[in-house]
Amino acid sequence: MSAHIANGRLVVWLTLFIGMMFQIMPLPTMVEAWRPDWLLMVLVYWAMALPHRYSILTAWILGVLLDVLLGATLGIRSLALSLVIYIVVLLCQRLRNYPRWQQSLVIAGLICIYHALIFWVQFVVVGAAPFDFSMFLPAISSLFIWWWVFWILRNMRRRYKVR
């Protein structure tokens, strides 16, 4: 394996690690409900940019790690992340050609699907998951942050020649 390929993979895994850290870092209670889904946005970017390399298996592994870090029921987030990334991989050619504002709307919709799946699985498996519309607040904050996440990751991909 050449150093060029290894550096590209290192950059991707470093961004995924940073996304994971942003996802679990503590926030004040006032803004906790508005926390953007950092890991999901980073995963969506890499699944759009390199669907042959970072897709469902990557999402499943990171979902299991996120469940372990959050102390949640094992497999809930891995299922939700995998299904959302599956949708992204199916639509990656279209998503790449959408303007950023339209991509933001799609990302918000995908985050709503992600949170609805988590709620549904918790409701079915655990049985005591109360429904609250505040679970969709991260979709609103991610809607506005996607522009910067996309711009930063695209520039990193170009600078480090990630392929």
Automatic annotation (TrEMBL):
What are the UniProt keywords, alphabetically? Cell inner membrane, Cell membrane, Cell shape, Membrane, Transmembrane, Transmembrane helix
**GO CC entries:** plasma membrane
Topology relative to the membrane? Multi-pass membrane protein
Q: Where in the cell is it found?
A: Cell inner membrane; Cell membrane
Ranges that cross the membrane: 12-31, 38-62, 68-92, 104-129, 135-153
Q: Which NCBIfam families match?
A: shape_MreD (TIGR03426)
Family affiliation = Belongs to the MreD family.
Query: What is the official name of this protein in its record?
Result: Rod shape-determining protein MreD
Q: Which organism is it from?
A: Shewanella algicola
What gene codes for this chain?
A: mreD
